[in-house]
Specification:
three-stranded antiparallel beta sheet, 2 helices
């Protein structure tokens, strides 16, 4: 079964690369290895299509804010790394970790030990009159 899956994946990658070679041109890439493309020739009366080929599993949160703006036609070109938009206090972009091992789990979560802190006595349960 895994041989068919790997063959299908291999064939899909070949088809995508042929399509990109025929109709697209690479505009750039980001630090995560994602590659961004635009149509060589826009269709009549329409904007040129833009798309991303993800490195690894496709996940939309891997797209950095600069490239997200470019993909959605908010800007003509992505912001360069040294632009005024980037501030020294900003952290580097990270994809959304929800559903992964790196996801936040509060104290008391079953995957984080399952032990909640003892009640402090400042809570009083509601009871109907």
């Amino acid at each position: 079964m895994s041989e068919k899956f790997s063959l299908a994946t291999w064939m899909a990658n070949i088809q995508i690369n042929i399509l990109v070679w025929r109709v697209g041109r690479q505009v750039g890439s980001d630090a995560a290895g994602n590659r961004y493309f635009e149509e060589k020739k826009a269709r009549r009366g329409m904007k040129a299509r833009r798309w991303v080929l993800y490195k690894g599993a496709p996940e939309a949160t891997k797209v950095t804010p600069e490239w997200h703006g470019w993909l959605h036609y908010n800007m003509d070109a992505p912001l360069p790394e040294g632009s005024g938009f980037h501030k020294p206090w900003q952290k580097p972009h990270q994809p959304n970790p929800t559903g992964t091992v790196q996801a936040y789990r509060p104290p008391g979560h079953l995957f984080a030990g399952g032990q909640r802190d003892k009640a402090t006595g400042d809570y009083q349960a509601w009871t109907p009159n």
